[in-house]
Amino acid sequence: MSTQVSAAAEGLWAGGGSPYRTNSKKLGMWLFIISDSLTFSALLFAYTYSRVSNPNWPTPFHFSPSIIFSSIMTLALLSSSLTMVMAVHAMNHGNRKSTSGWILATMAGGALFVGLHLTEWMNLIHEEHVTPFDNPWGVPLFGGTFFAITGLHMTHVVIGIIYLGIIWQAVVRGKFKAEDVEVAGLYWHFVDLVWMFVFPLVYLMSVQRH
To answer: 83-110 pLDDT, tens per residue?
Structure first.
């Protein structure tokens, strides 16, 4: 009787695997993403609350270069998410050469994002005189929250580029499996998703009005 029940239960799952069984690396990454999501959520909530509660909240971003740069940055990250999907797909099919190329393309998108972001920061600092502790509009929280949110996100992108570089080297050397590339993809997609909240909340809602 017990043998029949066991066989029936196994048949229900078609693949014979437990629905609760998952790779430890993937589980670890999901736990990290959940915890990091809470951090970014708290920062974005604090920024939104500060903005709504302060009628004099500044709108320093000119269409050029801030919004143009941030739009290109957004396009670069979205494109890098697509190339990361292609890298995972290629690795699942055992094509390491194609995988390495797609990973390099993803890293290039991340590097473009960081380069444009630093250029946009320099413009704010030198042209608008905005720093984490001071700004021309006398709203101290603006600089602090802006640089905290965008700086933390940019740090995640830099870490992601380094992470992908390690994965790329291993793939080229014939090491690591498809699941390792997939786990790296989870991190990269998370970083891209966070930017989809930062871009409208921090940039588009603070465009300078003439």
So the answer is: 999 999 999 999 999 999 999 999 999 9
